[in-house]
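Reply to dn_fold:

You asked what the input looked like. This is it:
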Amino acid sequence: RKAPGGNQLRAAVFSPDGRRIAVSFRDSTAVDVLDGEDLHLLYRPDVAGVDNGNILSVAWGAHGSLYAGGRWNVHDICKIRRWADGGRGGYRDLPVGGDTIMDIRPLPDGGVVVGSADPALTLIDAAGRTTRQRLAEIADMRNKLRGNFRVSSDGRKVYFGLAYGGQSPALFDLGRRQLTRNPETTAGLHAATESPDIRDWAGTTHPTLNGSPLALEAYEISRAVAIAPDRRSFLLGADWYLRRFDTRGRLMWKQPVPGVAWGVNLSGDGKLAVAAFGDGTIRWYRYSDGRLLLSLFPHKDGKRWIAWTPGGYYDASSGAEDLIGWHLNRGKDRAAAFYPVGKFRSRFYRPDIVARVLDAGSEAEAIRLADAARGRSTQRVDLARMVPPDLRVLAPSSGSSFSGGSVTIRYRASSPSGEPVTRVFALVDGRPVSRGRGVKIVRKATDANSLTVPLPAKDVTVALFAENRFATSDPVLLHLHYAGRAAGGGAKRETAAFVIKPKLYVLAVGISHYDDKRLKLGLPAKDAKDFSAAVLAQKGKLYRDVVVKTLIDGQATGDNILDGLDWLTRETTSKDVAMLFLAGHGVDDNTGDYYFLPSDVNTRRLRRTGIPFYEIKKTMESLAGKALFFVDSCHSGDVMGKRRGVADINAVVNELSSAETGAVVFAASTGNQYSLEDDRWGNGAFTKALVEGLRGKADFRHLGRITVNMLDLYISERVKELTGGRQTPTTTKPSTIPDFPVAVVR
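and this is what came back:
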């Protein structure tokens, strides 16, 4: 029997007692309630004022209410309508968000959870109040037509809106490894070429070429079109496929797509097809046969991005390695596992492959060229053998209380890859603790083990990790509350009135003058001096004492820097804060390993005379207290020769700020940018902003303190102002570390 409210049925949901069916439609704003046995119309809830869009979803509430929503919106805010008495009573309209409501599900407490197309999730309680909302983190790729989606002649630059259409414009430059919001110019970028011969291609199921229909799947909607530069073919983007047609409308190839193809374009040389999809990605295809070459996920914040090849080799901005990952099935009786790509950084982080794949025309050729440049072949890996251990905490549960000076954690670690679990360790408030008692090598999933972790007398977050020779697990977080001293002793609670101020230990290195005169720089030495002065001013304020070791120019030899790193590790206790500041040259060798260059470096003997990244990482991992790393080392240019270039600071930042390392990292630039300095500023742009922020300008709200997040915001805006957007500093903080103050203002 046909429901009377519309022609295209969207949803039919039984009432909890099975006696009624609520029905919604794609082509109507009506809601019908039918008899559950013979399907005759019982009644129609009041939809007065629902005068646009449609009603896609319906749901019965736990206490006799009926909910409905869809594309209907009021002033661009989508709402759901809730009727009393199963749709017979009065109604109330509840605001949800800005995109189509796709599904509504009842909750036992009388509320509902609402899924929107953003995608977004909204929890609404029985009183109609929004109690929690998880908003979308993907860019809105809808309406990427004409000037809203432009590419360069070689396809390596793409201009698009992070929001609907051309709103919140952004430019991704693969060559510079950079995502820029509000770019100053779109010169050299072109929109898709259209043709009057192709009609009805925007939002219909029946596009035509010269009046003849172009073959789509049943109910598939055409969304975008681009004519090839030689005008001998064209690209059509639709809901389910990308298609290339010739001038007679004959299909040359088609490729399934990950979401609606809201925008398509072609590079000026006709070699690449570029498309913007509903899943928030932009993807490049070889136009000759439609083979996928590269995918890009630009986060809606306009800062983070990650690009990857079909084989999983990736490049990423600072803080972006958790945006995509590997989905591995584990059999029909177990849930699939998801691993962020950063878990396999050592094998799959390959910006050299990503940079070459569009020009090479295939992933295999890009790998060959990258391997030739670095002098080392890429080894195939079995991902299933590289996955990290599984870790489960048996006791205590998060939210538990503890007394005394330690807690014993019972856990079970297993190895889905078969690789032995080599270490289980804990961080307390993001920092390492002295080795706990009871650490064992775990070989069987049935082995239950325990780890005793020393704790300070305050509320803490303990992060537990397990690792094998390839990867480290995600942390299991335990938020524990200090309940006071146990009977017979223990530590006194660190209340606000009795907390001892921490000491601050700082190693500041700045090198303007090198033994090799070709490496001379302008202001890094002054940057280190000015940073040291700024933190020394915090003595007696946030910190009870500030101890600074400053190494300038000739003092900053390789031996002295390594001694300084040892000093920083040795002096910093769990109650202290440590800062490492490096300004000077930083480079990658031909295999991609980062080195900071001391004043006595011999660039022909880099491995013997440079400061390798692993020494910096070892220091940051070993620091017992809070650890902050400030790095301004992207000055190098061509001084290292053709096979060595500017340091890949993104890799340094991502590795140091991983949860298991636990350092807060402030980097002067991102991608392939150079750090800028100007005598008029008196410092490099990054250090000028950093020093100004520490001296009080980062306290926007006049709270009398400056936290990591506040300093990050000030540095970002100030460097952009100083450099006209040519330099983009980045800050990353592990998920295990909450925001905390780094300076106070008096």
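The chain has a mean pLDDT of 91.
Hope that clears it up.
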